[in-house]
Give the backbone structure.
Amino acid sequence: MDIYECNERFGITLKKLRLMRSEGILKLEGDKTPKYWRQVVYDIKKGKMSARSIALAYRYPGQLEKIVKLTLRDRGVIADHFADVEFPPDALQIDMNFPAPIGAIEKHVMLTGQFIRAVQQIIPNHHVSYYYVAARLLLFTCDTDFRINLMSEQLARAFASIRDEEAMRGWWHTEPGKYHQESTIYHRPAHYDL
């Protein structure tokens, strides 16, 4: 699949696809680039790791060791990070129809309740982070890297759509999005923040 097919099938602009590809973040075929993995490690160390990066890094733990020269401290930071989000999520049961409301929630308000119930299934208590929730959803509902990249954007918009719902109040703050997008809404709990 090239960027033109990607644009046609998924509606992502060519400008954005070219920018992602030129920065080494998006590679539609083959392995991720060394620059991509260096950025993943940097994000982990700075506490800025996205749900998408968590999901992709968890799928390819060997890439971090092979491409990036990790120090013992780096290894410790990464190990602690994944321990905090309680991976691997083998015991988690998610309805495999869940991707449907993620992509459609903005246009179909009736799916809001279904989306919230599905999210609440994987939140053991109120003090877990957005990244914990989102990364688990991405890992369980996406079977390819490309779907993780696509779904991560839809998931952020879906969470933004439910921020005013009573069941989800008190969960949000804003952060600037990548690639000059609008601010993304994230969950920031009081005691459990990655």
